[in-house]
Each structure stands twice: as structure tokens, then as C-alpha cells.
Amino acid sequence: MENMKVLYKGFNEILQFETEVKGRKVKRELLVAKSAVAGIVIDERNRIGLVSQYRPVIKQHTKELPAGVLDKDGLSAVDTLVEELLEECEITQEEILSIKENPINPYFMWAGNTDAVISFCEVRVKAQENKQVSDADVDGVEWVTLEEMKKYIEDGTICDSKTNMVYYYLMAQR
What we know:
about 170 residues; four-stranded antiparallel sheet; five-stranded mixed sheet; about 45% strand
């Protein structure tokens, strides 16, 4: 990539660059976004933890896996997820029984426009209850069965790729 030009700089950046595709020069944009980690959080009752939050960009409340961006120097994906579980679900380290990294391969969030990757951890926790949380962005956490998760997918309440993909991953594990 050559001739990088900053088009926008904020939480994310948008860069424009020239590259060669099939022997011709083309302009492309690169969204410089932060990579992330998501938790497949399963409690002792075999229920999946989903956080409820309003997403202004799509103008709706969603239910999705707890997740966070890798934006703190020195923190691994696991460290970041443990922080997010405390913030978004109020799950303490003492309630975490095990963490398995990468049960699903990490993938590019939007391969055509960014090199940001999302990775996954399967987290087993002690039995949990639905609750409202004090996190500024999250309304609460709900513990659901795969059947309940399927209903949320069908009615559009679950509408993000990571949570949809994890549903099908968990169904294949049955």
C-alpha cells in the first residue's frame, strides 16, 4: 500500500491508498479499527450469556455475546475479555471456572475494508441469574438456552455476525 491519505481520524480511522489490482492502479479505503475478543460464556446450567444493549448505528436493542476491543496496551485477549465480563456481566474472576482460547478460529470482521480481527474464548462460569448491570453501554445480561437464542435470531434481536455464528457453532456441538 502506498500513498496513504488520512480521510478521517477518530476512534477509528479511514485511510485512502492506491494499490494495484489485476495490473491497474485503484484507490481503496482502509478502515483502521481495533481488533476484538468475544466470549462464548456458558454457565453451569448450560445457558449462554447474552448482553442487551442499544446500538445507535442500527437503531435497535440487541442481544449479543459480551465482547470488547483490544485497546489497552499490555492486555491480552483473555485479559480484555475478563475485564469485559466484569463490566458487562458483573462476573468476577472467582466465578470463572475455565477459559478456552479460540474454540472458533479468529476472523476478519470485514475483510474487504479492515484488517481488524475478532477472536473468541469459551468461558465456563458458575450458575448465573439474569440481571441489570451498571455498565454505561449495557442494559443487562440474560442467560438463555439455544432454543431461546434461536428465537432471538429469528425475530432479529440477535443481529450481529459473531453471535449468529456462535449459535450455529454451539448447535453443531450438540
